[in-house]
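During data preparation, a discrete fold description was generated, as reproduced here:
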Amino acid sequence: MRLHEYQAKEIFADAGLPVPDADLADTVGDAVVAAERIGYPVAIKAQVHVGGRGKAGGIELAESEEEAREAAESILGMDLKGYTVNRVLVEAAVDFVDELYVGITMDRGAGRPVAMVSTRGGVDIEEVAAESPEDITREGVDPAFGLHPYQARRAVYGAGVAREVAHDVAGVLTTLYDLWNARDATEAEINPLMITSDEAVVAADAVMNVDDDALFRQPDLEAMETDSYEDDLERKAGEYGFDYVRLDGDVGIIGNGAGLVMTTLDLVDYYGGEPANFLDIGGGAQADRVANALDMVFSDPNVEAVVFNIFGGITRGDEVARGINDALERFDEIPKEVVVRLAGTNAEEGMEILNTDLVEVEGTLEDAVRRAVENAEEVSA
């Protein structure tokens, strides 16, 4: 589960991390009231799950009521990288002299958490890692003991953080790790962690992603789950129990298994298409589950064609084929061409069962993806 900035900052503040005074607003009037309460200057920030909000016009500074009103009117309702902005965070602007990055995530290669610090805050950390990895200091953490204070200091000094604020930054990093661990997070980061002219540290942004499988241990975070969804499709995915990520392309993708879906996404890109989503329906693709998946993909206005990639393991291919047939027969009119690739247990029997009046059937994944990409290109031509 990916928290919105305002949700993550609530959690950070409860843990004692320094965050700016802020209010959430979903109307222009509420945004102006919030700005008046906080005091100018304020930052008005779109609450959507995308990076680069500032460059895309999703963050504006306001130094007066008129500017706050204009900024809120500009941001609320805007389309920001495919998402409609329905809420803004109005928060006290930070007069900063420097920007840092601090974060905690899993080092899957090493099989343990890693704490990271960089003096290149305010920049996409993935870009920094790709272009100049030496600008990020990493400190591996033994989860049995947690992040030791000396490790936090070593990471901070190793990154080149100024001595005057190093102690406070190390404290932020330690608290962030404790929060990451206690909250079953997969990522927790502050980018940027701002340094003010009076040498205070402030979390100007907040990112926190939580392991879905651990939400039963985090009832207060689980209660935030509905509000963390970005749009109706993500909300539907949560209700249906799908692993779903909406993307920017026009080829809808449905599969049973995360690795299988990722492979399909890669092949769509390889054959010149653009994936519209990641949708993993899991095992046991029965008719109801298949119908819900197709309803979701068909509901995405960006989708022009669909590829259904199924590998039968414990679930038999003939059962999956019957589920696909039953699901598609529920639609009065199938709105998009659906290409099916079926492999694994009882795949041949499944191929014979599939209703080719409802779907296009391909024998290999490569052929299925190529056909779906061609279908999407024909529709958009």
